[in-house]
Write a structure and sequence with these properties.
The complex is a heterodimer of chains A (406) and B (107). With 406 residues, chain A is an alpha+beta fold. Chain A has 16 helices and 13 strands. In chain A, the strands form four sheets. In chain A, strands 1-2-3-9-6-4 form a six-stranded mixed sheet, sandwiched between helices. In chain A, strands 5-13-10 form a three-stranded antiparallel sheet. In chain A, a hairpin with a 4-residue loop joins β2 (45-47) and β3 (52-55). The longest helix of chain A is centred in the first third of the chain and has 25 residues, at 115-139. Chain B has a single domain (3-101), classed as Beta-grasp domain (Ubiquitin-like (UB roll), Roll), CATH 3.10.20.30. In chain B, strands 2-1-5-3-4 form a five-stranded mixed sheet. Chain B is globular and about 30 Å long. Classes of the chains: A alpha+beta (406), B alpha+beta (107).
């Protein structure tokens, strides 16, 4: 416990204080024992290291996500409170906004990434997945992160957006900065921001209308300005949201799925026997690995949450990954089961801010895993997987594998 | 407790007990019913809890919001005049006996 000035120590129903740092390298290496500690300590905890409240059980994470009036996003969804600190970049018009402003921008991106649009791009995405498997079958031994989890989304998403060919190497580093910046002012965040200038310059430039090919997601966003749904100055910032959150997340999602299927051969065999399970195998990997581990909210008023009183202006850290393995909600939460009913997991969030690109992610995951399951008999891990460290994202840096053709 | 009947594409049907306040989708997934995926968990964002509502019940359902209307344009099985997303059908005592048909596909 720290000195008695901390808000949590004063309330009648005292919230348990933990000395956990959920942004520490040791934590990232194996977060699961700490997730369990956080869940079991109580429905609401207080983390002295960063002076924030935390929720790690499914019920409370779901409740916070679904009460945006009390737990707002406009003061930042990272540790930094935009009311007290200047954000490192102009705030997002959708992620870091509350209704009613959010409602308008959200409607635009929902339309651009709708189920109808997914039907139009499905064949193209599926053909690219087949081509990727062709290339992998030629190699036999490769790094499943760079050659598969990164290469596949890179082969379709920038084109779908309508980006120019030059400069795409900035995309993953930019996303890495964005997701590191949600964390506390640790080395990961400070270094990421310090090195971000060239990536930021690239992204700002590509968001402009003239740089986006007709028919792509980016051009569709700008077209919404013509319709009067958003202003011409808002459009580039909404394109930026797709550049920030549309690539690295799916890289980590597909990486998670391949890592799961390589680690659990009986699940791989089930997928081989019935490739129509591909979409759920991807979804279950998003639950099991939770590529996006955490997000913050800020309280707009004093609120009681599961018996804990939280004052106004407090940061609340939601452990999405811990909620996705909460035994109060899930049977055998630590098992990867491709036939599980995954509906309700919070890997994409929940409520008004739930991932607006979830349909793109599922489509990429489904067609990629379908192509793998149809044409590959076996995936073997042939070297020590290396973890990539990020304040928000969980994923691997490299996963050496050897595949056997079907 | 209001009950809903879900009719599968093969003609078999499941009668599901619901609770007032939950959605038809939640009732279906709680009972492990095949044919309702609800990938987004009930946030009106994915169109995978599509149902065809029996015509005699259609007028008694809550009105359709714009986002639901837009999502129904992208359903995997064809949209019909009776199409709704079951996550947007909140159960009330008046909906006791509701009959819905499940589409061939949700994705």
């Amino acid at each position: 416990m720290t000195a008695s000035g901390t808000p949590a120590a004063t309330g009648p129903a005292s919230v348990p204080h933990l000395d956990v740092d959920p942004f520490d390298m040791n934590f990232f290496a194996d977060p699961y024992p700490t997730h369990q500690r956080l869940r079991e300590a109580g429905p609401v905890v207080y983390l002295d290291k960063w002076n924030v409240y935390g929720v790690a059980r499914y019920a409370e994470v779901h409740a916070v996500l679904n009460d945006p009036a009390t737990f707002c996003s406009s003061r930042g969804v990272g540790l930094s409170d935009f009311k007290k600190e200047t954000p490192w970049r102009p705030p997002s018009l959708i992620l870091e906004a509350d209704p009613p402003a959010h409602t308008r921008t959200r409607a635009v991106l929902s339309k651009v990434l709708s189920p109808t649009v997914m039907k139009q791009v499905r064949d193209r995405f599926a053909a690219a997945a087949e081509e990727r498997v062709d290339a992998l079958l030629d190699k036999r031994s490769f790094d499943a992160i760079t050659d598969l989890a990164e290469a596949y989304p890179l082969s379709i998403f920038p084109d779908a957006l309508g980006l120019k060919a030059e400069g795409r190497e900035h995309l993953i580093p930019y996303a890495s900065v964005v997701f590191n910046a949600f964390g506390p002012p640790n080395e990961l965040r400070q270094q990421a921001i310090a090195r971000s200038a060239p990536h930021q310059a690239y992204v700002a430039e590509q968001c402009q209308r003239d740089n986006l090919a007709p028919g792509g997601f980016g051009a569709c966003i700008h077209a919404q300005a013509d319709e009067g749904a958003i202003t011409a100055t808002e459009a580039p910032l909404l394109v930026r949201s797709l550049l920030s959150a549309g690539l690295d997340t799916t890289v980590n999602g597909i990486g998670a799925a391949v890592y799961c299927l390589a680690r659990f051969p009986e699940q791989w065999q089930r997928l081989r026997d019935d490739p129509t399970l591909a979409r759920n195998a991807f979804e279950e990997a998003v639950r099991f690995e939770s590529p996006v581990q955490t997000f913050f909210r800020t309280t707009t008023r004093e609120v009681e949450l599961s018996g804990a009183t939280i004052g106004e202006g407090e940061k609340v850290l939601m452990f999405l990954a811990a909620a996705n393995r909460d035994p109060r909600r899930w049977d055998q939460p630590d098992s990867y089961d491709i036939t599980r009913r995954t509906s309700g997991h919070v890997g994409f969030g929940s409520g008004i801010h739930m991932c607006v690109g979830q349909l793109v992610a599922r489509l990429e995951g489904e067609v990629m895993l379908t192509a793998l399951a149809r044409r590959i008999a076996k995936i073997e891990i042939t070297g020590e997987p290396k973890r990539r460290f990020n304040n928000t994202l969980r994923g691997l840096d490299s996963l050496p594998v050897t595949i056997t053709p079907a | 407790m209001p009950a809903i009947t879900f009719i599968h594409p093969d003609g078999k049907s499941d009668c599901v007990e619901t609770s007032v306040g939950e959605s038809a989708m939640q009732a279906a997934t709680r009972h492990g019913l095949d044919g309702i995926l609800a990938e987004c968990g009930g946030n009106a964002m994915c169109a995978t809890c599509h149902v065809y509502v029996d015509e005699s019940w259609l007028a008694r359902l809550p009105a359709m919001a714009d986002d639901e209307d837009a999502l129904l344009d992208g359903t995997a099985s064809e949209r019909r005049p009776t199409s709704r997303l079951s996550c947007q059908i909140k159960i009330t005592p008046e909906l006791d006996g509701l009959v819905v048909k499940l589409p061939e596909r949700q994705v």
